[in-house]
Amino acid sequence: LEITILRRMSGQSQIAVVVLTVALGFIIRFLAGAIWGHEPQSLESPIAGVNVRFAGLVLGLDEVAVILVTIVLTGLLYLGFARTRLGLAMQATSQNQLAAYYMGIPVKRVSALIWCLSGVVATVAGILLASKGSIDPNSGFLGIKAFAAAVIGGLGSLPGALLGGLVIGVIEPFAARHVAAGFSQVVPYAVLLLVLIIRPSGILSQVRDKKV
Fold first, then answer.
1. Cβ–Cβ contacts within 10 Å for residue 88, how many?
2. Domain total for the chain?
């Protein structure tokens, strides 16, 4: 996919690439469903049903594992992007491919590594999601929610993506409890629209206004 399709998007905006990958996700999901079926699949977790008490709260051990793995993975990604030469090259390539090329960065190779890393992170996220119960092949709107979280936090910002995910994760169950069923699913996207109006670049965007 990176060689045949995604590489042709070189030089396009981040929004265009994200929209393309979401569309590809729907296509791949349809093809996978046509081959293996659209029925939900369950994953037996060895820690399912085990509870942990902490500060008066009762949490499932699987939930604690998801939280810890997410924190560790986010920290490792942040350190990798901010402290290593490869991570800095990835940031430069994602922000301005032409400038990165003139700086001597092998843009095509780095882009391929970025997509490989994205696949690994998506695989880990899928495993964590599967540990919470059944996997529904028709849950394609998760990709759109992830896109909304990334835009709210700020495209290109890893802490922003984490913050955007937390915002969506808190707002959605709150809306499901206090808003009519027909409108609860719309609330996260209403928040997205509000953020785009007030701060189009996102809450923690790396884009900064510069006076010239």
1. 15
2. 1
Q: Please give the model's pTM, rounded to 2 decimal places.
A: 0.74
Q: Give how far Cα 180 sits from Cα of 5, 50, 175, 187, Å.
A: 41, 33, 8, 11
- CA trace torsion 151, 155, 159, 163 (10° rounding): 0
190 found inside a domain: yes
Q: Tell me if 164 is assigned to some domain.
A: yes
Residues 206/154, Cβ–Cβ less than 8 Å? yes
Residue 198 has pLDDT above 80, yes or no: yes
Q: Residue 3 belongs to what H/E stretch?
A: none
Tokens of 117: 């890393």
Tens digits of residue pLDDT in 54-107: 777 777 777 888 888 888 998 899 899 889 999 999 888 877 888 888 889 998
AA letter at 116: C
